[in-house]
């Protein structure tokens, strides 16, 4: 999902993410909305000219838990997390 919006304008990318019916699209949409809000707060940035330069999803820390099983045993459960980075740029680069 992250590769589908790279190189698009911010408005087009957000429309694609908003109407894509899977969970990662909604999460990336919220991160992109936050990145856009941060860019507008930082100063004289033209929001209409912004493009999505890069979207990276990297592996984050893993939560390790145990689940009780039969006959006194336990099974490892790894709850994986991720780091999402959205880089916005002004104009075509």
How is this fold's topology laid out?
Blueprint: H1 10-18, H2 23-41, E1 50-68, E2 74-90
Antiparallel strand pairs: 1-2
State the distance separating the first and last CA atoms: 22 Å
How would you spell out the order of helices and strands?
Answer: HHEE
Biggest sheet overview: 2 strands, antiparallel
**Radius of gyration over C-alpha positions, nearest whole angstrom:** 18 Å
What's the count of strands? 2
The helicity comes to 25-40%
Mean pLDDT: 90
Low-confidence stretches: none
Across the major sheet, the strand order is 1-2
Helix-strand makeup class:
alpha+beta
Compute the number of helices: 2
SS strand fraction = 35-45%
Q: How does the overall form come out from the CA principal axes?
A: elongated
Account of the 3D structure:
There is one protein chain. By secondary structure, the chain is α+β, with helices and mostly antiparallel strands. It is 30% helix and 39% strand. It has 2 helices and 2 strands. The protein has helices spanning 10-18, 23-41; strands at 50-68, 74-90. Strands 1-2 form a two-stranded antiparallel sheet. A hairpin with a 5-residue loop joins β1 (50-68) and β2. The chain is elongated and about 65 Å long. The two termini are 22 Å apart.
């Amino acid at each position: 999902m992250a590769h589908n919006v790279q190189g698009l304008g911010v408005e087009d990318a957000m429309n694609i993410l908003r109407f894509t019916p899977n969970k990662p699209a909604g999460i990336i949409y919220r991160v992109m909305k936050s990145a856009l809000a941060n860019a507008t707060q930082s100063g004289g940035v033209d929001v209409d000219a912004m493009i999505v330069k890069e979207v990276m999803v990297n592996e984050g820390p893993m939560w390790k838990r145990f689940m009780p099983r039969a006959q006194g045993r336990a099974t490892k459960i790894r709850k994986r997390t991720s780091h999402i980075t959205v880089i916005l740029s002004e104009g075509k680069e």
